[in-house]
Write a structure and sequence with these properties.
single chain, alpha/beta, Aspartate Aminotransferase, domain 2, disordered N terminus
């Protein structure tokens, strides 16, 4: 049954009409929808890998690494078993450890800071800007003689201000490692995320825009020495089968996951274009809605919209209201890292990172995946507008 009439042109006028006849379901994510059209292809690839018996560092892993490096515009890529291990191994290969400090953003997923802490180093937080990314103007005040690296997070799939960050790093002779977990194909001044720092770290988690059928991660670099060292670090420290040269763990990407990723890479550009189109619809249709602010990328940016995050007055009430209409949404992330229990030993006072803390009370992620139909998007917009028109909701 058509829920909203006259939506094919995706106009504000249509979305404003009181024409909703029944609730429809618009989940926040729809992984099964993505796989519906890929299932036969994926199963063929899984069968091929099973028949080959090459489950660990099989040929598909190397092919995937080559294609991913080309995708990011770098020389090398090393596939690992998660985005978290990508960050951890990146820091380890740069010899970040006890006594060091790494500057990062407080509004990321906790794995960013966790990996810093797991090396023995200390995360130091710099506040963020309107784009949800680390604010370059706040970084230099956080630099000390112990600062080893800056770890910007390309949150929501929007690349941080890398020109400014790299200039600061060069001035102070410190390293830059990109947390590009959410940013495959994101562009900044014509270059792609993962090509700016000495290393770039990506997640291939099922919720990411390029996603494995399980966990996975990738590290990108232009440094051949780091590339070769990372190959050893991800594989139990083995330079060859009979000689272990460093104490480390097992962080290999499974061959079967690489096979799945190679299938999905053929669709990635189209999926990303779909996300960008959906984001543009939200921006256009929500423009002028009192109580809502949409992200506004600059001319030199091409975000990929891993999440489409609005700033919303009465955020929690809006989230509940949308859920009552069958519309899923999420908060990325409701509690900044420095305010979580695990961060007590960092002694970062509440109120010291005001922009990140304010944003955490206002941000709301709307469904933006490419499988959304026009009626789904208009339905979401219709109820957001209705919420802000009513004084009693």
């Amino acid at each position: 049954m058509q829920v909203l009439r006259g939506l094919s042109n995706m106009t504000t006028r249509a979305a404003d009409k009181e024409t909703v006849s029944e609730t429809r379901q618009v989940p926040y994510v729809n992984i099964t929808g993505q796989h519906a059209g890929l299932k036969k292809q994926l199963l063929r690839e899984f069968e091929r890998v099973i028949d080959s018996g090459q489950f660990v560092l099989g040929e598909d892993v190397g092919i995937f690494e080559k294609r991913f490096a080309e995708l990011c515009g770098v020389s090398y890529a090393v596939a690992v078993n998660s985005g978290t291990d990508a960050l951890l191994l990146a820091l380890r290969v740069l010899k970040v450890g006890e006594g060091d400090e790494v500057i990062t953003a407080p509004n990321s997923f906790v794995s960013t800071a966790s990996c810093i802490r797991l090396t023995g180093a200390m995360p130091v937080f710099a506040d963020v800007g309107e784009d949800y990314n680390i604010d370059p103007s706040k970084i230099e005040a956080a630099i000390t003689e112990r600062t080893k690296a800056i770890l910007p997070v390309h949150l929501t799939g929007r690349t941080a201000d890398m020109d400014a960050i790299l200039a600061i790093a060069k001035r102070h002779e410190i390293l830059v490692v990109e947390d590009a977990a959410q940013a495959v194909l994101s562009e900044y001044r014509g270059r792609r995320a993962g090509s700016f720092g000495v290393l770039g770290c990506f997640s291939l988690h099922p919720l990411k825009t390029l996603n494995a059928c399980g966990d996975g991660g990738v590290i990108t670099t232009n440094d051949e020495r780091l590339y070769k060292r990372l190959q050893v670090l991800r594989n139990l420290g083995l330079e060859h089968r009979d000689d272990c040269v460093v104490w480390t763990g097992n962080s290999r990407l499974d061959t079967i996951q690489a096979a799945a990723l190679l299938v999905k890479m053929d669709y990635l550009e189209a999926w990303t274009a779909g996300r960008r189109k959906n984001a543009e619809f939200y921006r256009r249709e929500l423009a002028g809605v009192a109580g809502v602010r949409c992200p506004e990328p600059k001319n030199h940016e091409r975000p990929v919209y891993h999440t489409f995050v609005i700033r919303a007055e009465r955020r929690d009430n809006l989230k509940k209201y949308l859920a009552d209409q069958g519309i899923g949404s999420a908060v990325h992330y409701p509690v900044p890292i420095h305010m979580q229990t695990v961060a007590k030993d960092l002694c970062v006072a509440e109120g010291s990172l005001p922009e990140a803390e304010t944003q955490s009370k206002e941000i709301l992620s709307l469904p933006v995946y490419p499988e959304l139909g026009k009626e789904d998007l208009a339905y979401v917009v219709f109820y957001i507008k209705k919420f802000y028109r009513s004084e009693n909701i």
